[in-house]
Amino acid sequence: MKSRRRRRESTASCSTVDPSLSLSPSSGGDVDRLTELPDVLRLRILSLLPLKFAIRTGALSSRWRDFWRYRWPQPSIIDITAPPSLSQSQVVSAVEDFFSRRGRGRGRIDVLQIIFSPSPRHVSDLKRWLDYAAACSVSDLHLDLSPPNHFSDSSRRRRARAAAAASPILNFNCESPTLTRLSLRGFHLTSPPPSFKKLANLEILNLCEVYLSYASLRRILANCPLLRALSIRRCPDLKKVVVPSSALRLTRLTVVDCRKASEVLVTNLGLRSFRFSGPLLKNYHIESAAALEDVYISSGGAVPAMPRGDLVRPLGKLANLKVLTLCSLALEQIGALSARAEVGFRWLPNLVELQLLMVMMTESNLSDIYTFFKLCPSPKLEKVFVELPMNACDSSMKTYLEVPKEEPPKGGFNNLKVVKMSGFKGHLHETELAGFLLNNAGILEHFVVTVSLEHIEGECENHKRDLLQYLTMQLSMLPKTSAKADIILTESDDLQFRPVHSQI
């Protein structure tokens, strides 16, 4: 039976999807009734399904794959990207003509992307396009109104002010009850914001470079009860992020580079993924921290003095955590919490993957790593990724404040199979960490080392080759417990070994 099914699918894979309709099933051997339905019936089935379920039918067989794209007579995936060669008036005229020929409300729109930076006099045209999308029951909307990047001033603050002044003001309104995914970028959201009451089925919301207040965000969340993923990136005016308890289905929260955001408060009980990158938070709280499975915490560079608030204490015990990324500052604070005998990170029984983002690699930083492994036993840990600092100087050659040296722990890596160290330069503390991991991982399979040669001028090819040979010899001399551990030294990033948090 399995062999006959393989023959059917291999035969089907040789054909391509034909948008023309057939009224009779294909002839052949054994009949798979679902796969061999006539095209008109398959399209009828797809037209009754929401977009995400229509796409999933591609798993049935090769004849269903990508067939969802033909479920509407008119184009259902529309990309409006204004080319720089056309004036805004020409773009508006072309779009209006296309929508007129397509017809209003006659065919649903699965995906609509608009990349257009309207002048004030064309904002009304943009609103008309959004009304058209709502009338066509759009499911996935991407709206990017970012102004062209012509700000060459060297001051970052001045560039930010210029971008804010050039970004249009929009009273966003797309009342489509079928909208499940919404991405907004590059404009000022009017205050008070729209109610979003007609977006009760919204599941995914991405806000990038959108100028909005805390009150605006709170009002949006209050009107999207089915929201399960919220991403907020580079929103300059947002001072805090508050997820109310009414957001029952929100499971993923991402906050990246919101420079004024100093508070993150999550009071709902369903959060499973929390990813934060940006300035140090003054205050944050996650009500359901014990349920988290995925955590990313990065607060940039080193802090000259002890921060005003703890970066890791609000997370508490993370019994369900599977994937974790920590920056140097977070590691430092974990050690500080243990010194004060306060509750911080502790037993991580289900942690499978750990990534460490090291801004510096001094003796103190190495001690912080050892402290983490002592305080947070992770019996199921399988993968460790270490991003080493990009600076070429060996920090071990400099003099720092005297700190007690933390002795490395023994054992604790019984399931560790993959280690990757990126930006390796062969410095003392980098090599010591590599030796510690090799010596304590009994079943290690792959030890990947990505070498950083950016600090060597391009003309010194012989120097680069000699350095690679030296590093290879240096790593080969380190004692390793696992006889089958394969040490891989490479100049390029190996895509085979990428952390879950390679992109946030």
UniProtKB/TrEMBL annotation:
**According to the UniProt record, where is the region Disordered?**
1-30
State the Pfam families in the record: F-box, LRR_At1g61320_AtMIF1
Q: What are the FBD domain coordinates in residue numbering?
A: 410-490
What domain of life does the native source organism fall in?
A: Eukaryota
**Ranges of Low complexity compositional bias?**
17-29
Q: Which PANTHER family match?
A: FBD DOMAIN-CONTAINING PROTEIN (PTHR34145:SF65), OS02G0105600 PROTEIN (PTHR34145)
What name goes with this protein? FBD-associated F-box protein
* Higher taxonomy: Eukaryota, Viridiplantae, Streptophyta, Embryophyta, Tracheophyta
